[in-house]
Amino acid sequence: MPVITYREALRLGMSEEMRRDPNVIILGEEVGQFKGSYKVTQGMLEEFGPKRIIDTPISEAGFIGLAIGAAQMGMRPICELMFWSFSYVAFDQIVNNAANIRYMSGGLINIPLVIRGPANGGTGVGATHSHTPENLLANAPGLKVVCPSCASDAKGLIKTAIRDNDPVYIMENTLLYGEKEEVSSDDYTIPLGKAAIRREGKDLTIIAHGMSVKQSLLTADILAKDHGIETEVVDLRSIRPLDVDTIVKSAIKTGRVVIVEENKPFCGVGAQISHMINDLAFGWLDAPVKRVSAIDSPAIYSGPLESIQLPKPDRILKTCLQVCPSKKK
Amino acid sequence: MPVITYREALRLGMSEEMRRDPNVIILGEEVGQFKGSYKVTQGMLEEFGPKRIIDTPISEAGFIGLAIGAAQMGMRPICELMFWSFSYVAFDQIVNNAANIRYMSGGLINIPLVIRGPANGGTGVGATHSHTPENLLANAPGLKVVCPSCASDAKGLIKTAIRDNDPVYIMENTLLYGEKEEVSSDDYTIPLGKAAIRREGKDLTIIAHGMSVKQSLLTADILAKDHGIETEVVDLRSIRPLDVDTIVKSAIKTGRVVIVEENKPFCGVGAQISHMINDLAFGWLDAPVKRVSAIDSPAIYSGPLESIQLPKPDRILKTCLQVCPSKKK
Amino acid sequence: MSKKKTINESNKPCLAELDHRACADAPVNKAMTKEQKLHLLRQMVRIRRFEERSQKSYVGGNIKGFLHLYIGQEAVAVGSISVLGENDHTITAYRDHGHALMSGMGMNECMAELYGKWTGCSKGKGGSMHYFAPDKRYWGGHGIVGGQTPLGAGIAFAVKYQGKKGCCLCYMGDGAVNQGPFHEILNMASLWDIPVIFIIENNFYSMGTSVTRSSAFPEVLAKRAEGYNMAWDVCNGHIVNEVRDCVEKAVKRAHEESKPTLLEIQTYRYRGHSVADPDDTYRTKEEIEKFRTSRDPITLYLKLLLEDNVITQAEYETMDQAAKDEAEASVQFAEQSPYPPEESILQDVYWEEDNRNEKTTSQGVIFFE
Amino acid sequence: MSKKKTINESNKPCLAELDHRACADAPVNKAMTKEQKLHLLRQMVRIRRFEERSQKSYVGGNIKGFLHLYIGQEAVAVGSISVLGENDHTITAYRDHGHALMSGMGMNECMAELYGKWTGCSKGKGGSMHYFAPDKRYWGGHGIVGGQTPLGAGIAFAVKYQGKKGCCLCYMGDGAVNQGPFHEILNMASLWDIPVIFIIENNFYSMGTSVTRSSAFPEVLAKRAEGYNMAWDVCNGHIVNEVRDCVEKAVKRAHEESKPTLLEIQTYRYRGHSVADPDDTYRTKEEIEKFRTSRDPITLYLKLLLEDNVITQAEYETMDQAAKDEAEASVQFAEQSPYPPEESILQDVYWEEDNRNEKTTSQGVIFFE
Ligand SMILES: Cc1ncc(C[n+]2csc(CCOP(=O)(O)OP(=O)(O)O)c2C)c(N)n1
Ligand SMILES: Cc1ncc(C[n+]2csc(CCOP(=O)(O)OP(=O)(O)O)c2C)c(N)n1
Ligand SMILES: [Mg+2]
Ligand SMILES: [Mg+2]
């Protein structure tokens, strides 16, 4: 299998779907002539032409609303947000129109819309460019939210998202775009709502999504090496639908759970998962479910501080050892 | 003490503060000549004049952004949203500019802004007008969110909010505007972040905010009468800051907790509170923490169905009895 | 753009003399058959009687939420939609009963929707503000002011993408022109030659705010189009023939040049903003009364059709009675219909959940408790 | 509004001959003392040298995130801010170094901010896009395109409310004009006579998109103001005197009539959108080179001052060296400064938490884990 980047995997997934289905188009700022702000769409203008790869003005509410209207008519638009932070200027279109029209029409309409772009901190772009709104969006019934953590998932999930007949929002990560791995050239899809166990373990469960999966795996290595703790790492992949089964099974198996995410803590995805585990695995837990989220302030610019603010192995490790004491020492 | 409505209590609180401080102004659609869509500001144009009671175009992002700019300069604007649902067209201003500018300026700036308006279902206004975004807003560090459940709190909390030097968002309820109770004419304030125990009990704790407090109290009556269960009802009043102390003490005291809210379940306020209780009262609980939220679809229009969708005594009761079995029978 | 003489540029509700024969001889109107003319009249009457009847039910407590009546504005929806062809679409805001009925929706499904019944056009899930009929190319019914305007452009975009000669009429109120997304989409519509026709139904008030208290603009609102190099026009919405003439030109521009237009159609609502609006702070009873008596769209068109011997007074009365009967029957229908079943609350949220089959690639939990 | 001859209406970057003496004799410019003239030149040079030095640090890996350089556009910030008085304010977008320095901020605090240091103007919390100096009536530095435009109007609103004769200059890029909130605030500014001056710094590109690919508009962007009954003007941003003349008239309008203005100042950036932008897809190297050689704001103003014997070449070189030295020293300062302490992450979030005292009425938990 060819080794390609996360960025290329996204592009491949979209290109395959665009070849399959002429109703798929891409709209966004700088997606065409500029080749994409993060080069995800590089080369696609050449292949698919300006009718399908559409450079927009800086009018997120406008072009996403336009995409919703077009989606109602059977098109399958993919909107690129340069950052998910900019979803806030289009929030009404994104959560109200996209999520509610099907319901308010009694099911007469459906909206096969994909919105994608990066949602992460860690590169010093500051408080206005570092939002991770997966919790805000997954709050709305009618929407689906996925956060691929690696290249092969990126391809499989974006293809599913494009074929899905409901709005699916994909949160990527600028720090993952360059990460490489083997990605099949086959026409494969990954179901939404299916988590992946990235590492098996019996002592402790870490639940994570997106970049936090990587940080959690690094931590799991340390936990094994330095503390004799065997950690199971669950990559959610999809926030809504959510693979509650896998989560709860792992929680019951290990009895100890840490949730890692870049979300701000108050009503973050971790809060929802913690609630469900405490409910569904009540009596099975040997320690309270703990979270490692972004430290609860707006994203700080300063590099070394931002690195502390986001969940990294040192903070994750500390919390894991609270939940599951070291077996060595 | 005079008996006045929730609506009048809000008006009284705002009027008192406007008399105290010439920097307080009100901006919103129909707040002046029309006397307020829900008549909260009735008569204020006459008292304070058009310089301070300002009718705006239907431009929420514009006038809230304007208020943020004015607040930086030492003014203390109160923005009325006709419904909090319309915050979504101004979401960037509301969560990004209002929450982040202080931080990004290293503390040079502060934004004494109040935004208020109703956030509730239950009146058949449908999916686009029934949002309860307290969870989405309280997610953002830099913001404060309060949800008064009764007239005397409405006055005390809005006065505190106006004097607070940070953005405070007040979520009211069209179904509470007409509710009357004794409200002091004194110049009193209620601290943000202080919950109120509305009913004491030893068997079960219900945690609620806004309209759900009323529904919970009704349920507590039934629980006492029909099931011999003594329920403690905690009214959060404030979502952020949050009175974690009172919540956890009550949870430890009763060992059984139900959280009631109009929020949609996924990452609702209840998820956050459930997580905290499970963490801080770990080992003290006799049953899993359960939630009664809005049923997880967009707000339905049809009256009888909306009544099922929102938390009402019948659904609350059922969940309470799951968590705390009837003592009679 | 040409501006017609009947147009009011003072931007106060204006009662200058109107010519009910205006545009009667415009080609698009001259070409109508007798049945087509009667159709226009009948639709205006049906809309009015439907709404009057719904108001009665609302006041009687049988309808919840908001009820925004279109009474007085009927010629706008009727005139404009009457010039559309099979690839043309419509979308509007929450004051949507007129557009829905004129698009071919039935009174029964519309009334049942108001009653929140399972037989309603949206199964009782949408209510007054959210009527939809995609099979009639009618896309709602939208509650957030201005929120439907990018959707309208998107519909027209799709029509063009799919290679059809069609357009989308996208209606909004005078108060909606100050919502940001409308501005964004005006720019895009012009930049990309999208065959969308934005129609500002200027009834001179947004709730209790007169247009001059909410908007800064040159002579007319529609002139803002010039800032986007977009064609625009203004017409009088009390005269159905004038609406047809004006909209038909814009439709031609959309069909033949794939160009957008911003139209302003000046009109007036007789009722409060919604039925619950006390309507006593921003205009006088006399103003309403004068509009009702001097420029009612039904009266004016009836006068023309009587003069031209298209209809007799007796025939009109039969038509009117039929509309009343139809409205009354729709109330019967609504009242006898069941409410949606409880399990329907979680239906129509996700297409994929409503249509689970072997191809469904969604797993896990999608609804939460 | 008057349009000056040097203005380019083709809306492509235009290289027509420029007169470096344009507006030199306008009253606002004639009235300047020698020191004032030198001040303008010095500020342009300081901005340029500061940014060139910051670019070097960025390429060297010492600065994170985005770095949007203003090089080529200096005459806009310098000319416009130079005509302001003590009740006048400024606010801008993320390309904010020029406005910050011209507002009186020091190179040290600005460079330290880029380095993410505790001594930075925002304590290292804001970065390049978020410089603030309220004491200098400079309100940032904003990262969301168009998001600062309502704030600018709000600042001007407050000035007027407080009974002062002042205004706010609110800058944005040519790409920002298609953000909804800007449209909303244009309407409100005109409707309410807010003394705000919106300045579109039209450098003909938003990232890789030329202005004609992102906006539909008549001859010039600023003409959109007519849709709001707002005064507007366009000027050439390569010539600092022309900027001063144009902005000063708008400031007068704000001060004396409390009326807003929409200005378009045509300019050009030499560097990529940000330092990381490869800058190879949307314009030619030749285009950049021609701007740099034929219409550089510093070169043009220096030429004028040399001609008028305000400065000698040697004096200029001293000035330039001083700016370079100052920039270099600011790098030293930044490098030697500490990073913010870890506990500062949770400071400056809430005023009430940073200033807890007996009057604080906030209790409970405000930061979560
Ligand atoms: C974004 C948003 N803000 C406010 C409202 C509340 N609202 C509903 S209708 C309306 C007035 C609209 O007036 P206009 O656009 O003139 O339409 P008309 O009612 O006259 O048909 C307002 C303020 C809303 N629905 N959406
Ligand atoms: C709402 C929003 N959308 C997109 C962006 C990403 N972005 C940052 S700058 C920029 C281009 C802006 O160009 P222009 O307004 O012309 O200013 P210039 O960079 O030329 O100074 C874009 C698209 C953003 N910051 N905010
Ligand atoms: Mg109106
Ligand atoms: Mg630009």
Which structural traits does this protein have?
heterotetramer, A: alpha/beta, 5-stranded mixed sheet, 14 strands, C: 369 residues, alpha/beta, two-stranded antiparallel ribbon, globular, binds thiamine diphosphate
Description:
The complex is a heterotetramer, with two copies of chain A (329 residues) and two copies of chain C (369 residues). With 329 residues, chain A is an alpha/beta fold. Chain A has helices at 6-20, 44-48, 60-72, 91-104, 134-138, 151-163, 211-227, 244-254, 269-280, 303-309, 313-323, and strands at residues 3-5, 24-28, 53-55, 76-80, 114-118, 144-146, 168-172, 180-182, 196-199, 204-208, 231-235, 238-240, 257-260, 290-292. The longest helix of chain A has 17 residues, at 211-227. With 369 residues, chain C is an alpha/beta fold. Chain C is built from 13 helices and seven strands. In chain C, the strands form two sheets. Chain C has a five-stranded parallel sheet, sandwiched between helices. A two-stranded antiparallel ribbon of chain C has the order 4-5. In chain C, strand 6, helix 9 (240-257) and strand 7 form a beta-alpha-beta unit. Chain C is globular. The mean pLDDT of chain C is 96. Chains in contact: A-B, A-C, A-D, B-C, B-D, C-D. Chains A and C meet through helix 3 and helix 4 of A and helix 6, helix 7 and helix 13 of C. The structure holds thiamine diphosphate (TPP) (2 copies) and magnesium ion (2 copies).
The low-confidence parts of chain A are: none
Q: Give the strand line-up of the largest sheet of chain A.
A: 3-2-4-5-7-6-12
In total, the number of strands of chain A is 14
Secondary-structure element sequence of chain C?
Answer: HHHEHHHEHEEEHEHEHHHH
Give the rounded overall mean pLDDT of chain A.
Answer: 98
Give unreliable regions of chain C as ranges: none
Query: What is the arithmetic mean of pLDDT of chain C?
Result: 96
Q: What is the rounded distance between the termini of chain A?
A: 43 Å
